[in-house]
Amino acid sequence: DAKTTQPTSMDCAEGRAANLPCNHSTISGNEYVYWYRQIHSQGPQYIIHGLKNNETNEMASLIITEDRKSSTLILPHATLRDTAVYYCIVRALNTGTASKLTFGTGTRLQVTL
Amino acid sequence: NAGVMQNPRHLVRRRGQEARLRCSPMKGHSHVYWYRQLPEEGLKFMVYLQKENIIDESGMPKERFSAEFPKEGPSILRIQQVVRGDSAAYFCASSPEGLYNEQFFGPGTRLTVL
Hints:
The complex is a heterodimer. By secondary structure, chain A is an all-beta fold. Chain A has strands spanning 9-13, 18-23, 31-38, 45-50, 55-56, 61-64, 70-75, 84-92, 107-112. In chain A, a hairpin with a 6-residue loop joins strand 3 and strand 4. Chain A is globular. Chain B is mainly beta. Chain B is globular and about 40 Å long. The N and C termini of chain B lie far apart (36 Å). At the A-B interface, strand 4 of A face strand 4, strand 5, strand 9 and strand 10 of B.
């Protein structure tokens, strides 16, 4: 799986949009971009994933550049409960089987009042 | 729908004892993954199992660690003769069949070796 690079930490004011960048310049054509977060030692929580089109769900939006070398996770209205470590993961999906997640160091997002 | 369940949530063992960690996947999920998170470190993949089969154990230490996912019952991660370096949070995840299969994580078991 391709390597990802994320900022170590970010701050965001409550109610504002949190934009978390991820660089994955070596991504292959069959690799998806996944985002998970881990809130204070809890089990990681799936947020969203995408291949090349932008994606949106009830939690967040995922914007992937046209060349797929980078992406941005957007939390449109951050709350204090969004304070967590956010992991950007590039993952190949093999036909008929699932594959492991390779977690990097992630971005520690601190949402403040 | 119940999520992924792990027990015990906290486990204390003395050096040399055995630790057994259990994971019940979400209903309908046939894939189970185990990850380990050492203190102040990121999560590391250990093993991936389907019912009665180990698919990928590339992250498992070669000695003392084993995992199983029997036809009936939970998945078990077993650590024999624990050492202090085994102290960590162990997370289990499950996923359903299919290509677009996000993994759902349990709350973890925190193992402390005295």
